[in-house]
What does this fold into?
Amino acid sequence: MLPRDPAEPGRTATPLELFFDLVFVVAVSIAAVQLHHALAEGHAGHGVISYGLVFFGIWWAWMNFTWFATSYGTDDWLYRVLTFLQMGGVLVLAAGVEPAFTENHWTVVTIGYVVMRVAMVAQWLRASRSAGPNRKTTQRYAVGIAIVQVFWIVRLFLPDHLQPYLHVVMIAAELSVPLIAERTGTTPWHPHHITERYGLFTLIVLGESLLASANAIIEALHDHEALAPLISISVMTLVVTAALWWIYFWPPHHTAIRGFAQSIRYGYVHYFVFAAAAAFSAGIEVEIDVLTGHSELSATAASFTVTIPVTVFVLGIWWIALRENADRVVNLAVPLGAVLVLLDPVTPVPVLLTAVVLTLVVVVLVIHPPVRNVTE
It folds into this structure.
């Protein structure tokens, strides 16, 4: 299981990696649906916290596999079997999302998460046998991940009133493993391969928004009284989703991970980017509920469920990938556009204004191409 060449020409996502991503569609979709229900019922605080915790498990397991695969993806039979085991863990986690939201019952989610992480320990131990100079790094990954999983299991048997604090501590422990492991030497990563993988996952979470748009059309066919508003929000959703896609893929992302510190920033901030993109679809569903009289939220509050995720998505991408590839005009237009979107709910036509603002941002991006060469 030799390290892959970080300068390997023509390196792209493998069919196994694409198959792996498809399983995460299930988990992301269920998490977004549960967030939608919580928001629509007026339980915004509980829903956002539960969603954030669930999405951390989804994102962290996906990200760890992605960075391991770029360094040691051999695609032999054992590598595939261990990858399938991680996919099974994703499905178990997905099955536990609803009880985590509705009953604060995290046992199934934790079991699914630990299954994924134990498979990752096996991958790191196998890689350590032929990692050469990075042998100690791979061993630190294996040991660090294994120790944290023990504490995830122990956490289930501790008093309920300690669970929120323990969750924060466990997340911090997970995030610290790469920082500690890479001190003895950085594992090799392929910039183009990594950023392609992140781009593919972005397409998955943006796809949730297109599903919400389709639901608006379906709902419109059953409720002729709300036909025009629902079709309008569906069109606006498509425009906003397309604009988010344009903004995300405008800069050459591979230039954002030239060093270890940059790669950590790029990887960790993507938690907010991915979570926001999936939450945007939940917000659209909430808007539909308000229009059809099935939500406890006011129209203004419902609009914030759309504009906050959009703002977080745009600012996140601007900070980690777009900012260093943009001129002054773009670096003014993008964050300003994000702020205007955040303030949209106080206007009479919030979703329409969001679509208009993001369209104008895209126009600026078209007029001002990236300052760095995409093929650099």
Q: What stands out?
A: The chain has a mean pLDDT of 91.
